[in-house]
Specification:
The chain has 338 residues and is α/β, with parallel strands linked by helices. It is built from 13 helices and twelve strands. The strands form two sheets. The chain has a seven-stranded parallel sheet with strand order 8-7-6-9-10-11-12, with helices on both faces. Bound molecules: glyoxylic acid. The site of glyoxylic acid has 7 residues, from loops.
Length: 338
């Protein structure tokens, strides 16, 4: 018997992850699962988690109290390979003394880049133009063909000025934009604002919505942000303005968004995430002024590699008793006082 292997903690890998995490996880843990690139079904998850120390999962796996209990009390760490962790019932984990970790930082630039890809695509009608050319409908240049709206000099509204929101705002320096932002923890400190940037804090979402030409969402999904953008808020947006969402689908009431686009109030939308992913609200795909992506925010080879490595390192650090990137630090304080 290989005793070194026997001593490794056990980890359920809910689906295949990219390298280098895929190899690293096998060096550090006795791994169950994770061979196939498909979400692990609930029955499989309930069975697989039994007796393991760690669950390394992705946003495709909902992890609730029942999944945690199916471990029989062995589960100590849930390492999510994502920065968002709304797929995990964190309160249930905290009640059970299970640490939950995520992968912040490594996907900031990739997600900010994608938000910008959507901003430019929707404002300059890039996808409509591509379709027109492919369909052989590009006759001659015309002064009226697929006119969009200027991004340079426009006002950008960032809802949620965390890491990703700030990275989106920094990129807007190249477009000479005025930036309005909301932030749960109040205005940024002066040293967090780049020299020459015109970033203005708004303590109310309504104020931002009524002034911005482009609104980009960067809040985590929780009970306070579900349907943050409902029909009232969409109605407050400027006529002809654009909404971009690379955060989580349920932050937007998707039916209300479709209505607002159909009515011609909003100028367009760029979406990477959906309310009932991978399902789409009725009518969304009939609209020409939307750009729809299949949740690609962190989808670069470089970023997915860093996420897989960080998810494994988070799991190892937590089982060693040196946890990092913990989203429920209450568990740690309880451990300290025990
Ligand atoms: C991706 O959506 C993530 O939260 O990492």
């Amino acid at each position: 018997m290989d005793t070194s292997t026997a001593k490794k903690p056990t980890l359920l890998l809910s689906r295949r992850i990219p390298e280098p995490g895929f190899s690293l996880v096998r060096e550090e843990f006795t791994v169950i699962g994770g061979e196939e690139d498909r979400p692990m079904g609930r029955a499989e998850l309930l069975r697989g988690v039994e007796g393991v120390d760690v669950l390394l999962c992705l946003l495709t796996e909902p992890v609730d109290g029942a999944v945690m209990d199916a471990s029989g009390g062995s589960l100590r760490v849930i390492s999510n390979m994502a920065v968002g962790y709304d797929n995990i019932d964190v309160q249930a984990a905290t009640e059970r003394g299970i640490l939950v970790t995520n992968t912040p930082g490594v996907l900031t630039d990739a997600t900010a880049d994608l938000a910008w890809a959507l901003i430019l695509s929707v404002a300059r009608r890039v996808v409509e133009g591509d379709h027109l050319v492919r369909q052989g409908r590009f006759g001659r240049w015309s002064p009226f063909l697929l006119l969009g709206h200027a991004v340079a000099g426009a006002t950008l509204g960032i809802v949620g000025m965390g890491r990703i929101g700030q990275a989106v705002a920094r990129r807007s320096l190249g477009w000479d934009m005025r930036v309005l932002y909301t932030r749960k923890s109040g205005p940024l400190a002066q040293e967090q604002v780049p020299a020459g940037a015109c970033w203005e804090y708004r303590d109310e979402l309504d104020g931002l919505l009524s002034e911005a030409d482009i609104v980009s969402l960067h809040v985590p999904l929780d009970s306070t942000t579900r349907h943050l953008m409902g029909s009232r808020e969409l109605g407050l947006m400027r006529p002809g303005s654009y909404l971009v969402n690379t955060s989580r689908g349920p932050v937007v009431d998707e039916d209300a968004l479709v209505q607002s686009l159909q009515s011609g109030h909003l100028g367009g939308a760029g979406l990477d995430v959906y309310e009932a992913e991978p399902g789409l609200a009725a009518g969304l795909t009939d609209l020409e002024n939307v750009v729809l992506l299949p949740h690609l925010g962190s989808a670069t080879v470089e970023t997915r590699g860093m996420m897989s490595e960080l998810a494994v390192r988070n799991a190892s650090a937590a089982v060693r008793g040196e946890p990092v990137n913990v989203v429920n630090p209450e568990v740690l304080s309880r451990m300290m006082s025990a």
